Amino acid sequence: MPEYLFIENWVKEKCKPSNRSHHTSYQYIVGSFSPSQEEEKQLTVFPQRITWRHGKIPVSLCSETCYPGTRRSPKETYHTCCHVCIICPEGHVSNVSGSENCQKCPDGQWPNDDRDECFPKIIEFLSYDEDTMAAVFSSISGLFLIITVSVSGIFISFLDSPIVKANNRSISFILLLSLKLSLFCVFLFIGRPDDITCMLRQISTGVTFTVAVSSILAKTIMVSIAFKATRPGSSWRKWMGVKLPNSVVLICSSLQLLNGVIWLGVSPPSQEQDMDSYPGKIIIQCNEGSVVAFYFMLGYLGFLAAVSFVLAFMVRTLPDIYNEAKYITFSMLVFCSVWICAIPAYLSSKGKNMVMVEIFAILASEIGILSCIFFPKCYNIIRRPEMNSRRQFLEKQ
After folding, report:
1. b/e for 122-158, b at 16 or more Cβ within 10 A?
2. Domain spans of the chain?
3. Does domain 132-396 have CATH number 1.20.1070.10?
4. Pairing mode, strands 122-124 and 281-287
5. pLDDT tens digits, 95-145
6. Bridging pattern class, strands 281-287 and 270-274
7. pTM to 2 decimals?
8. What pLDDT score was predicted for residue 141?
9. How many CA atoms lie within 13 A of 349 on its CB side?
10. What does the angle CA 171 – CA 177 – CA 181 come to, to the nearest 5 degrees?
């Protein structure tokens, strides 16, 4: 015979004559227990016959079920059903309720905010579609490329004028050409990098800037020699001409070019994916490859700029006919200041911020050289033609 399970339902009743209350209990059959049946069928419960207090079914566990995105962690009690829900750690998810462990997302994926599903990581690089600064840098580079071409046109139109002749025409055109190529290098830094663009970025920028600074160094040397050669019987006259400045540019640039060739042969720059710097992002960037070659490029460029600045500063007080040293001094001061500030910022930044710092340094130094050296000459050629006449030239001489 089965044994029946009873439940008592206490009812509070109020007696009218005595104005007192008393309790009455009723028993209901809510289930049965049959020991003779199979183990799974021994206990039978009729839930519809059970009336719970306040209409809420009590929970047998002391902790609620953990939702997706969390995992269970046992409490330090003697109850095995007691636990706490802990949010899955960074990079892990759990997509079922009551999970005891969180699963790590596969490589290239990252959990959502609820940490219950993995999604592909965001790929980040300086692009035209998503970054306004890419369009700004491109516009500035294109604008000053047009200005540089215009300056070249002015110099070609007034090729035989005293101002153009006095400032070494051949070296001026080499400097203008290197500035144009450096402005083109800006476009190599924008867009998704690959192995080819990574190699062209650093090598082309280093070589073109070296040619520009070498040209400025050659102009500075020629200003100093030209002043000394004006003295009667001076032995410096044999150094006048185009051979010396061209040799300075060739020798100084060849050393940087040789560094670039060795750099490409030993450990060239290449594309890399940085998955650890920023959670949820894959940064596509360029690895410099050989650190020694990279720092040699920057150090050699800084050395040439420093020598040019010192020489130009020393000869800045020469007569007005050779006053290009004043412009060179200001241009090298701008150039050195920009790169001294940019290198620490470049080394301390990551991803597209690092690329933007490098582009800013390139544009700022280009604009500084172009503005300080060529804009005053163009102003005198166009707005003050009397300053560009042979008569004025001879009077000043």
Report:
1. eebbbeeeebeebeebeebbeebbebbeebbebbeeb
2. 3-55, 70-120, 132-396
3. yes
4. parallel
5. 888 788 888 888 888 898 888 888 888 888 888 888 889 999 999 999 999
6. antiparallel
7. 0.74
8. 93
9. 15
10. 145
| Chain centre distance of CA 16 | 86
Closest CA to 96 of 118, 72, 68, 119: 68
Residue (of 213, 221, 246) closest to 314 by Cα position: 221
| The two structure tokens encoding residue 271 | 């594309």
Q: Edge-to-edge, what's the strand order for the sheet holding 20-33?
A: 3-15, 20-33, 43-45
Residues near 118 by beta carbon (within 8 Å), at least 6 away in sequence: 93, 105, 106, 109, 110, 111, 112
Confidence of residue 289 (pLDDT cuts 50, 70, 90): confident
